[in-house]
Design a protein that fits this description.
The structure holds two protein chains of two kinds. Chain A is mainly β. Chain A contains five helices and 48 strands. In chain B, 23% of the residues lie in helices and 35% in strands. Classes of the chains: A mainly beta, B alpha+beta. At the A-B interface, strand 33, strand 34, strand 37, strand 38 and strand 42 of A face helix 1, strand 4 and strand 6 of B.
Amino acid sequence: MQFQRRPARALKSAILSLILPLALASRSEASEPFVAPIPLAEPSAEWPAGHALPNDLIVPVVLTVGADGSAELAELEASVGEPFDSAALAAARALRFTPAHDEQGPRSAKLRLIVRFHGKASSATQPPASGASANLRAGAVSNQPASEPSNVASAPTSSAPVRNQQASDAGSTILVQGAPARRSASEAVLDRRLLTLAPHKNASELLLVVPGVFVSQHSGEGKAHQIFFRGFDAVHGQDVEFWAGGAPINDVSNIHGQGYADLHFLIPEVVSEVRSTPGTYDPRQGDFAVAGSMHFGLGYDEPGITAKASLGNFGTRRYFLGYHPQSAPESTFAAFELASTDGFGPSRAARHGSAMVQATHELGNGVSARLLASSYAGRFDSAGVLRLSDIESGAVDRFATYDPKQGGHSTRSQLVFELSGASRARAADDLRPKERWSLSPFLVFRSFELRSDFTGTLKSSEGDSFEQLNDATELGATASYQRPIRLLSASDRLEAGVFLRTDQITQSQHRLSTLNDRVTDDDQNPGVDAEVRASNAAGYVDANLYPVKRLALRAGLRADALSYRTEDRGGKSAGQARSALGGQLSKRGTLDFSLLRGLNALVSYGEGFRSPQARSLGSGETTPFTRVVSYEAGLRFHDETRLESSLAVYRTTLSDDLVFDQATARNELVPGTSRTGVAANLVARPVAWFTSNTSFTYTRALFTASGQTYLKGELLPYVPQFVIRSDIALSPRFPDLLGRRLKAHLGAAFTYVGRKPLPYSEFGHDALLVDARAELRLGPVQTSLDVFNVLGRDWYDGEFVFASRFGSAASLVPVRHVTVGPPRTVLWSLTLFV
Amino acid sequence: MVSKPSFFLATSRLGRRSALVGLGILGGFAALGATALLGACASDSTGGQRVVLNTRLGLSESSASGFTTGLGWTVTVTKALVSTGSFAYFDGAPPTVQAPRHRNWKFAQRLLGLNVAHAHPGHYAAGGTLGDMLENWSVDLLAGTVDLPVGEGITGTYRSARFSLHAPPEGPLASALEGHVALVEGVAEKNGQEPRYFRATADEADLAQNVKEGAVDGCEFSVADVQGNGTVTVLVHLDVWFNLVDFSELEPGSEEAPSEFPSDSQPRLAFAQDLTQLSAYKFSFSAASGMKP
């Protein structure tokens, strides 16, 4: 027994010796994280006399729950007008709770609460017991004690979206949610409110709201966006790990690019949040998490049925149908989308359809289940690149195309199932979960087809157009188990998790004649026909420790094993097979120190990796990972619901990197690189009718070693140094009109991307874009007008330097090629809520 | 425990919080400044740059004042016009450059009398294009070194070049070329033989028997590490143009009425072939003043 205890004691001593000076310096008291209040009773509000409405009405309230479990103070988070405000506050004050508590006992705490008055129409079919219900969410507010400065770094919750408790009956739902513990100062969770301040054309563009992210769509409205994130040109996803609804999105060894992440299957209306995890600080982050990870949470919060039709210029049409049962949480929904456009120039037509359904259900005994199914198909044309000199000289129209045969097709169908559970202690008054577990298998079918032409007739007199096919079946699962462990405090928790994934991939690439589409592969361009089996098995442990007051230590280890087997099916190497396997151990940790109530300082360290393209590996090769090391230090501040901000300095180094090469017109291996930068984010909601979300990111990406093309100290090309984004919205409430609720929304987004280095010491064009939305809703009818690129700026969403031969006398010196960004685009929508 | 008045708590808390927020903002600016400083200390370049390449064409010294051909004719040129197309410069080594060989192997080669087989141009890998001049032009080679239109390029190591003999001629001497890609007049002399006053011409069709689209691909570029603007000079070795021409096949002609190279005659075929010889053209680079070559 002593043998077992000594290491723990030694570890405890070591950690204490590390953090004691900090703790002493802060002269703070010992404390533990707390458990959020848990509602005991249903609200009993009625519609104000004579004011019952046919539709539902929601009133957001911030509630202070006292140490005795009573509602001490109820404040409106956003006014909907009298007499509903008063009725909602009265309903909130009537709630009773099991109080929040920590190791020292019950404490007061604040909660964000939604009081819902059920519409008369819906009441007719499903009458609520009391006419109103309350939804409680522990967001930024809920995990903070109300009466004293916060003395915890952050609540020890799971990293996945967590429901601490859910209870439901006919007509009312009470839901308490906890936010995962932050892994870095710049980590951001963007909820639906922030995601919808300004318009977005698709789910990919929701990422524009994420601090440090810029996305562009350089090859048609259906090809995965190119993603830039904190000094990384992640191309189509090679450096950003994407998850949605519990399934990974990045394609392993996609023929078009490693980590290709096509987000078009996501219907933007059902994205309830985007969680950005920059760096590699969380042990749950796996393959492709080089610049960071993005998690899309799914849900639809509009009760009943929503039907929306949109009409825009360039022949744009979009139809959306969604529903969310009133008796179920927003995670239960179904949605369908059908969209088409002629495009803003030749070879830019696109159309796609997507359907997503998700249901959650409590199985009892603390076990819940979630099932997600979705299917998507899209077809798109692509105008491809133009030589900048041709545009500037007027030789071609800026919206022209050299090769009208470009375009592609993409499908994704998936099934995700999740079982999760939490057990509690037997003592009636101890509501702290003792254990949590989850198991979530997923099955994804992907197909991808793309025809591109970047170089004209540079390599073949019949044209360099090439076609890529990639079909993949992806099977995998995530699982985790979390339990309390008394290591440094009674609130310490330990989590273990497992990730497994295997992909069966069939892929090909062939050069096609632009004259008659025949295959023109030759010795110089032999083409690809291959079968790839890629497997990733990973395990992690993650500890949330609270060694002294104000300080949280989150540290973990992750081990990955990746194996690849490739078999060539065509050309001279047909029949040849090769396999490779490699392992990677990554250490990750975060120190989270609470300086004052709402103000935390975080220091993060993480190791990660970038996996290789399967076809690039030789037989028996120990999979050569690119080693990634990230550091970040920063401050986070949040003041109740009105202000949230972060400021961080970060650095990421890579042992080697991939950069678009001007000679080969594809990504090639280059020496090690680094990204050093600063990121700032400010979310402000000073009054109920105004919200702003502004972020500023500056990154300097450099080579840290010399190679054939680049020297140490030179700038990494293609990654913008400045990304600035500001979303601002006014949401005024007006007096009721014709007995219907009248509300408006005016939002605008400003995006600036600047100082993008290009080869030969040049810089690309900066871009300043403004998008705007005007929305008016009267009862069940809503109309909105979205305008993208309001200023009508001529801009380029892609700039690349390489040699091409479009036309007979063109220079073969690498020159700048561009893809033209969309001009001013208008979309008018009419929505009915039934 | 004595509790402080709530307003005092609120005030002090607000003050501390404001101070910390202010501190945080100041820290942010400091971080930004530090990052900018870090950036200022480092290079602000992605490596390399675009360069302006002046292009000049002239006669090699060896052929400026007459030369002797491989068949023993001493040639004096009185007129030499050529029509040029695009010029392009590459980082790939020209086919005439041998791969480095071990000294012992060279000795053994000499000892055994083994000759080196040069790869034919089909094995030439031009590599990346580093610079070019795309305008068609026409030049009087006897007028000294002539400036052609300005070309463009990028920094790098220039090792080989390609240029084309272009038809129909363009530029200042287009009409003087009378539609030919090359026109040379002069006199060839050889002991014991009557001098031959000649007028050699080559058309696109003549070149087509040897090269595609008049392109002379794989010319030697005196290895140059180009790091800035400068001038690419092309020296034409007229002696190579006539190296295999058997002037004895020609009528003597006269200074006023030089003898033409008849169609399908040895002189015409040889002249057309010699026009496309890689050794007839030598490319070099000289940096603009103040630039390191």
